[in-house]
Design goal:
heterodimer; A: about 350 residues; alpha/beta; 8-stranded mixed beta sheet; 4-stranded antiparallel beta sheet; 11 helices; about 25% strand; globular; B: about 325 residues
Amino acid sequence: MLSTPASSNSPLIGAAAPALLLRVSGLAVHFFTGDGVVRAVDGVDYQVRQKETLGLVGESGSGKTVSSLALLRLVPRPARVVSGRIAFEGEDLLAKSERQMQAVRGKRIAMIFQNPAYSLNPIYSIGDQLGQILRWHDKIGRKESLARVAELLRLVGITDPVSRLTQFPHELSGGMKQRVCIARALLCNPALVLADEPTTNLDVTIQAQILDLLDELKGRLGTSMLLVTHDMGVVARMANRVTVMYAGRICETGEVRTIFRDPQHPYTRALLESMPRIDQSYSGPVKPRLAAIAGRPPNLIAPPSGCRFHTRCPEAVPDCQRLLPEMAEISPGHAVSCLRRGSPGRETVGAVA
Amino acid sequence: MIAAMRAAPTGEEFFRIEGLTKLYPVLRRGLFRTREAGVIRAVDDISFSIRRGETLGLVGESGCGKTTTARAILHLVEPTSGSVHFDDIDILRVFREGRREEELAVRRGIQYVFQDPYLSLNPRWSVAQTIYEPFRVHGHVPRDQWENRLMELLDLVGLEEYHAWRYPHEFSGGQRQRVGIARALAVEPSIVICDEPVSSLDVSVRAQILNLLAELQESLGLTYLYISHDLGSVRYISDRVAVMYLGKIVEIAGVDELFAHPRHHYTHALLAAIPVPDPDVRAGRSLLKGEVPSAMNMPAGCRFHTRCPAALPQCREIPPPLVPTEGNHFVACHNPR
């Protein structure tokens, strides 16, 4: 039963050491468009440990969503995973056949999407579309599957779950739909949940309810989570560790406190400083200016040479135009890719493929 | 007191909204006739005023009526009742009676910056055409001055001269919003209604636009009505903040006072729900059970009583009026915090 994790069928729950669950290395996903090759994800590494939440942060176009979809091998055409390794539960997901992947999707890795209205099928009742997943993966009967769906709906805080089984998505509010999507993700007791901006479309008071719910479920079920978001507030609230992406590359990875207390990459710093905060006063005879980041995110068909952030970076030196910084650990568990922080650089000028 | 540190807004209350109401009838179509099945009280008898040179933030969740308020002010939707006074002109009357000359004067005085700059710019018009259109309509800039004025405006919003001949699709979101702002400023308005001006922009670009709005306010003495659900940007840009819930204003106060000492239980819960970029601050927590009731089935008495942690018996029957507490802090609650 879900409510008692010790007796759960997942072998991961109850494990003491925070062993590695997922290791992504050298992942590159490119979009082959008529205008050229968009290097949306261009050599990224990140890990998710058991029972932890990794916050994957970046702006739109940073590659955070594409690099998480790649885990399920769901990158949309014309994109293709061009290189990398995705080690999950001891297997390389990129080496699996499509058929083998079907046993992973929804079963070992489940997903919560940004817009619950689009990710639920409008013509099936809640019971039908969630029950179908169980019948597919666990080969159980209809009655049994509906009982399990009702149990999950209750777990995510939906009142009167049995009568909800026959309802359709349009009969539910946005917050309720997202609860249904969370229930759907947890149906098969997955080891990893990918949550892509799970609260971005919700009002703040409903967002707070959903964040509380995810927090509680994580504690109870011991599921790991990859939380993809642009909201530094949500990351601070939810994540154990944080990976910051910019223009298809990783800037910085570290424990959540390290990233917020001692950010090292100029982009991470700028991102944190540019956001107006509700717990800070901006009053005064002259309003203090926000520390804005100049310019705009680059075009990834022709990304800047060297460090991709150098065109907007306040600390850039001439070498940053030439050398692509590699991730380097600056203290245990805290890695940065910035020449100014001592990361090694790789020559890029003239080496563009 | 933190609120006292804020420079007192000096301007007179030149923009006054009284009893503004917008009701939408809900129609049920029968076989032979259509009957009114109910009414949605999108904006229900709200009043506030704005001083010259200040920014009033109007916040609330989706469906609370903040955008309808802005549209009703500009007569983009016809208000059911209420009045809007702008420099002692009853502008809703001007619109209703179709007095063209005065209508143009009012439209010059009040401009609107929209949420999505892509949808609010004509894709077939270059920036120059977009900016020339208000010059043409209002005739306040002599024709031989158009180009000079255009370049001044572009410079003002941080665009380059060569941008004048480009089209909306050639710009990034932030630049497009700059064009939207330049268009609003082209008629030299005294008040600009900004409806979620940074919500559709990338995080790294939002600060640029907020800084621009602050700069323009200081250099041109603009007044803003800033509408948003993003309380971080509201805290930054506003002098005073009004909080809406289900068509009603529940609280108005100076920005620092409101964020530090919210008196209404809804404001308190709203602020507590916002996650703060600091892992050691306990924020982003839910204090409210349930969801916003349907606007068609409005709770009697105080609209918030169904979710309020401090509701009293009278909250179910008597709608609380918006009354001053200390100073300029107004709250509509029978049992404030």
